Amino acid sequence: MKILFVREPLIDGAPSGPKVVAQKLLEHLSEKVEVILFPRVMYINKISRFRDLISKLSLSYKAVVTSDVDLIHFITIPAITDFAAESIILLGRLKKMPIIVNIHGIVYKKDFHDPERNILRDKLALVSHIRAQIASKVVVNSHYMKRLTSSYYKIPKNKITVIPNGVDTKGFTPSGDKINLDGDPAILYVGKISLEKGIDVLIKALRLLKDDLRKAKLHIVGSGSWMDRAILLAQKLDVHSYIRFHGKVPHSYLPYVFRGADIFVLPSRVEAFGIVLLEAMACGLPVVASSVGGIPEIVENSENGILVPPNDPVKLSQAIVEIHSDSDLRRKLSANALQTALKYSWENVADIYLKLYQQLTVG
Asked: Span 239-253, mean pLDDT?
């Protein structure tokens, strides 16, 4: 079986969800199927854009029309700057070739007040709709995303397959070196510093925590548009001395960070899946997370973690206190979290994708 695999451009920096999925699938599928890579490009200027466009359009035609590819797997996020890669979907449809499209999130129109950004979002939304309509199968990472995708793109649910994201269970483990994080407990957050991730809720919860856990410290790993306001909020609530902003950390360092913490918290207001939860759980950390989006599909309340309502710093702080004060509960959540993460190993996830490939190429 030969797969044409369209992935994100390889750009330095923290890997995005689509890049992680593509990388891990390539690692685990390369011995089972033949993969032809079609990496996308980011154009620097008009001249390079035109030159690369002609070159890539030629490659697109050869890869789809004149090759013996059995299936196209489009695992990238939408972009309007790479028409050559997008043309693969149209060429594949003309050749009546099976096409799998991963949808990692919904591209909504009119999401910003900035008129220029609204125009961009409109174009991205159009690309997303074209992909969803043309694809033989749309893959999403949670049942929550399946409902959202079916409703938004007006496609039948039987066209959508749920395949969860995976976790590197060899790299993310409870044992191994660690970066010791101070605090009793050492509370860890990893992700974007944004309102959708509930970073303000977490800081407010820390303020409430100080009444019960005077030695608690919050470690925030990541960066984002709300960083400056997060710092100001911490100062306003007089908890800035109990928070350490670590900034961006290379993905390869995260296992050491997780192993140095006591409790992991993800207070998101919106979350399609929450791969960072699996990474924390694979390291044996008890987790507290909002009961939104696809998170309840991973976290079972009081079994392998604690679920709290979104936008509720009181419930969030109470859950942290409960875990820290009850050693039996802490051990139970940690052990069950680890077992949950093992089910989501990339080996298991890759096998699910392989079965889907076989299903679409039979006959």
From this structure: 94
